[in-house]
Design brief:
Length: 211
Amino acid sequence: MLIPEHASKARHPGQTHVMQHRDQINRYNDAFSANLVPTMRPKRNRRGRRYDVPFLEIVLDSRGHSAVEVIGVVDAVLDSSLDDLRILVIGDFADLTDQRQSPPGDPQLERRIVHRTYSGDQRVELVDALPGGRCRSPWRLTLDGVSRAPKGDAIEDLLDDSGGPPRRCRGHRRRRSAGANGRGRAGAPDGRGGERRAVAGGVRTDPRQHE
Protein backbone atom coordinates (compact mmCIF):
# COMPACT_ATOMS: atom_id res chain seq x y z
CA MET A 1 0.00 0.00 0.00
CA LEU A 2 1.30 3.44 -0.94
CA ILE A 3 0.37 6.24 1.44
CA PRO A 4 1.25 9.64 -0.03
CA GLU A 5 2.80 12.26 2.16
CA HIS A 6 1.91 15.64 0.74
CA ALA A 7 4.49 17.42 2.86
CA SER A 8 7.34 15.37 1.42
CA LYS A 9 9.68 16.83 -1.16
CA ALA A 10 11.46 15.28 -4.13
CA ARG A 11 14.06 16.38 -6.60
CA HIS A 12 14.65 14.93 -10.04
CA PRO A 13 18.38 14.26 -10.54
CA GLY A 14 19.40 15.39 -13.97
CA GLN A 15 17.25 16.12 -17.00
CA THR A 16 13.84 14.54 -17.50
CA HIS A 17 13.15 12.08 -20.28
CA VAL A 18 11.30 14.76 -22.27
CA MET A 19 14.15 17.22 -21.86
CA GLN A 20 16.65 14.67 -23.15
CA HIS A 21 14.59 13.54 -26.15
CA ARG A 22 12.38 16.53 -26.86
CA ASP A 23 12.37 16.27 -30.68
CA GLN A 24 11.56 12.56 -30.83
CA ILE A 25 8.83 12.80 -28.20
CA ASN A 26 7.24 15.84 -29.82
CA ARG A 27 7.18 14.06 -33.19
CA TYR A 28 5.30 11.14 -31.65
CA ASN A 29 2.95 13.30 -29.60
CA ASP A 30 2.11 15.48 -32.60
CA ALA A 31 1.07 12.49 -34.71
CA PHE A 32 -0.88 10.91 -31.84
CA SER A 33 -2.65 14.10 -30.85
CA ALA A 34 -3.50 15.11 -34.42
CA ASN A 35 -5.29 11.82 -35.02
CA LEU A 36 -7.38 11.79 -31.85
CA VAL A 37 -7.79 15.43 -30.77
CA PRO A 38 -9.58 17.34 -33.56
CA THR A 39 -9.48 20.67 -31.73
CA MET A 40 -5.69 20.76 -32.05
CA ARG A 41 -6.09 22.32 -35.47
CA PRO A 42 -2.46 23.40 -36.10
CA LYS A 43 -1.43 19.74 -35.84
CA ARG A 44 -3.76 18.84 -38.71
CA ASN A 45 -1.90 20.81 -41.33
CA ARG A 46 -1.72 18.38 -44.24
CA ARG A 47 -4.22 18.46 -47.08
CA GLY A 48 -6.15 15.33 -47.97
CA ARG A 49 -5.60 13.53 -44.65
CA ARG A 50 -8.27 11.57 -42.81
CA TYR A 51 -8.37 11.10 -39.03
CA ASP A 52 -10.00 8.71 -36.57
CA VAL A 53 -11.87 11.62 -34.97
CA PRO A 54 -13.03 14.24 -37.50
CA PHE A 55 -13.48 17.85 -36.46
CA LEU A 56 -17.13 18.02 -37.56
CA GLU A 57 -19.88 15.42 -37.78
CA ILE A 58 -22.81 16.16 -40.08
CA VAL A 59 -26.12 14.29 -39.95
CA LEU A 60 -28.56 13.95 -42.87
CA ASP A 61 -31.79 11.94 -42.77
CA SER A 62 -32.25 10.49 -46.26
CA ARG A 63 -35.51 8.66 -45.59
CA GLY A 64 -38.34 9.66 -47.88
CA HIS A 65 -36.09 11.50 -50.33
CA SER A 66 -34.89 10.64 -53.80
CA ALA A 67 -31.32 9.56 -54.45
CA VAL A 68 -30.74 12.65 -56.58
CA GLU A 69 -31.66 14.96 -53.70
CA VAL A 70 -29.59 13.07 -51.14
CA ILE A 71 -26.53 12.80 -53.37
CA GLY A 72 -26.74 16.51 -54.16
CA VAL A 73 -26.56 17.45 -50.47
CA VAL A 74 -23.89 14.91 -49.54
CA ASP A 75 -21.67 15.92 -52.46
CA ALA A 76 -22.03 19.57 -51.47
CA VAL A 77 -20.94 18.75 -47.92
CA LEU A 78 -17.96 16.72 -49.12
CA ASP A 79 -16.93 19.60 -51.40
CA SER A 80 -16.94 22.09 -48.52
CA SER A 81 -13.89 24.23 -47.85
CA LEU A 82 -13.70 22.41 -44.50
CA ASP A 83 -12.89 18.82 -45.40
CA ASP A 84 -12.06 17.52 -41.90
CA LEU A 85 -15.55 16.13 -41.42
CA ARG A 86 -17.70 13.02 -41.52
CA ILE A 87 -21.31 12.84 -42.69
CA LEU A 88 -23.79 10.33 -41.31
CA VAL A 89 -26.56 9.47 -43.78
CA ILE A 90 -29.54 7.95 -41.99
CA GLY A 91 -31.66 5.50 -43.96
CA ASP A 92 -33.08 1.98 -43.98
CA PHE A 93 -29.89 0.54 -45.44
CA ALA A 94 -29.99 -2.65 -43.36
CA ASP A 95 -32.95 -3.81 -45.48
CA LEU A 96 -30.81 -3.88 -48.63
CA THR A 97 -29.62 -7.30 -49.83
CA ASP A 98 -27.47 -8.59 -52.67
CA GLN A 99 -30.43 -10.37 -54.24
CA ARG A 100 -30.79 -9.64 -57.95
CA GLN A 101 -33.48 -7.08 -58.63
CA SER A 102 -34.60 -5.38 -61.82
CA PRO A 103 -34.15 -1.60 -61.36
CA PRO A 104 -37.55 -0.64 -62.84
CA GLY A 105 -39.35 -2.82 -60.30
CA ASP A 106 -37.05 -2.29 -57.32
CA PRO A 107 -38.99 -0.70 -54.43
CA GLN A 108 -35.66 0.13 -52.74
CA LEU A 109 -34.06 1.70 -55.79
CA GLU A 110 -33.45 5.14 -54.24
CA ARG A 111 -31.83 3.69 -51.13
CA ARG A 112 -29.78 1.29 -53.23
CA ILE A 113 -28.41 4.10 -55.39
CA VAL A 114 -27.37 6.09 -52.33
CA HIS A 115 -25.75 3.01 -50.80
CA ARG A 116 -23.84 2.17 -53.99
CA THR A 117 -22.71 5.77 -54.32
CA TYR A 118 -21.16 6.16 -50.88
CA SER A 119 -20.43 2.65 -49.55
CA GLY A 120 -16.73 3.11 -50.35
CA ASP A 121 -16.35 6.72 -49.21
CA GLN A 122 -14.36 7.05 -45.98
CA ARG A 123 -16.09 10.29 -44.99
CA VAL A 124 -19.62 8.93 -45.37
CA GLU A 125 -21.30 6.53 -42.94
CA LEU A 126 -24.58 4.90 -43.94
CA VAL A 127 -26.50 4.17 -40.74
CA ASP A 128 -30.00 3.08 -39.82
CA ALA A 129 -30.18 5.44 -36.84
CA LEU A 130 -28.12 8.08 -35.14
CA PRO A 131 -25.64 6.36 -32.78
CA GLY A 132 -26.42 6.83 -29.12
CA GLY A 133 -24.23 8.63 -26.63
CA ARG A 134 -22.08 11.68 -27.16
CA CYS A 135 -21.04 12.86 -30.56
CA ARG A 136 -17.58 11.59 -31.49
CA SER A 137 -16.57 14.97 -32.86
CA PRO A 138 -16.48 18.25 -30.93
CA TRP A 139 -19.12 19.66 -33.30
CA ARG A 140 -22.26 18.18 -34.87
CA LEU A 141 -24.33 19.78 -37.61
CA THR A 142 -27.79 18.34 -38.27
CA LEU A 143 -29.15 19.31 -41.68
CA ASP A 144 -32.86 20.09 -41.81
CA GLY A 145 -33.47 18.30 -45.11
CA VAL A 146 -32.38 17.91 -48.71
CA SER A 147 -34.14 20.87 -50.32
CA ARG A 148 -31.10 23.12 -49.93
CA ALA A 149 -27.42 22.32 -49.48
CA PRO A 150 -24.45 24.25 -48.01
CA LYS A 151 -22.07 25.74 -50.54
CA GLY A 152 -18.46 26.84 -50.47
CA ASP A 153 -17.48 28.40 -47.15
CA ALA A 154 -20.95 28.07 -45.59
CA ILE A 155 -20.02 25.35 -43.09
CA GLU A 156 -16.97 27.26 -41.93
CA ASP A 157 -19.07 30.41 -41.65
CA LEU A 158 -21.51 28.47 -39.48
CA LEU A 159 -18.71 27.34 -37.16
CA ASP A 160 -17.40 30.90 -36.93
CA ASP A 161 -20.86 32.13 -35.94
CA SER A 162 -21.33 29.28 -33.44
CA GLY A 163 -18.14 30.04 -31.54
CA GLY A 164 -15.88 27.42 -33.10
CA PRO A 165 -12.11 27.89 -33.41
CA PRO A 166 -11.08 30.66 -35.81
CA ARG A 167 -10.26 29.71 -39.37
CA ARG A 168 -6.56 30.35 -38.92
CA CYS A 169 -6.49 27.47 -36.39
CA ARG A 170 -8.09 24.87 -38.66
CA GLY A 171 -5.10 23.92 -40.79
CA HIS A 172 -5.15 23.89 -44.57
CA ARG A 173 -8.43 24.52 -46.33
CA ARG A 174 -9.72 25.00 -49.85
CA ARG A 175 -10.47 28.55 -50.85
CA ARG A 176 -13.97 28.90 -52.26
CA SER A 177 -16.47 31.66 -52.75
CA ALA A 178 -18.52 32.52 -49.68
CA GLY A 179 -22.25 32.07 -49.44
CA ALA A 180 -24.70 29.26 -48.92
CA ASN A 181 -28.21 28.18 -49.64
CA GLY A 182 -28.58 25.59 -46.89
CA ARG A 183 -29.91 25.42 -43.37
CA GLY A 184 -28.81 23.43 -40.38
CA ARG A 185 -28.47 23.11 -36.63
CA ALA A 186 -25.03 23.18 -35.12
CA GLY A 187 -24.53 21.45 -31.80
CA ALA A 188 -21.69 22.39 -29.48
CA PRO A 189 -20.86 22.28 -25.77
CA ASP A 190 -22.32 25.26 -23.97
CA GLY A 191 -21.39 25.92 -20.36
CA ARG A 192 -24.72 27.64 -19.74
CA GLY A 193 -26.73 24.96 -21.51
CA GLY A 194 -28.59 27.66 -23.41
CA GLU A 195 -29.61 28.15 -27.00
CA ARG A 196 -29.12 30.88 -29.53
CA ARG A 197 -30.04 31.37 -33.15
CA ALA A 198 -28.08 33.21 -35.78
CA VAL A 199 -27.52 33.44 -39.50
CA ALA A 200 -24.04 32.86 -40.90
CA GLY A 201 -23.32 32.95 -44.62
CA GLY A 202 -26.93 32.16 -45.44
CA VAL A 203 -27.06 29.15 -43.11
CA ARG A 204 -29.44 29.30 -40.15
CA THR A 205 -27.80 27.86 -37.07
CA ASP A 206 -29.17 26.66 -33.77
CA PRO A 207 -26.23 25.81 -31.48
CA ARG A 208 -27.21 23.26 -28.87
CA GLN A 209 -25.47 21.23 -26.24
CA HIS A 210 -24.42 17.67 -27.17
CA GLU A 211 -26.74 14.93 -26.14
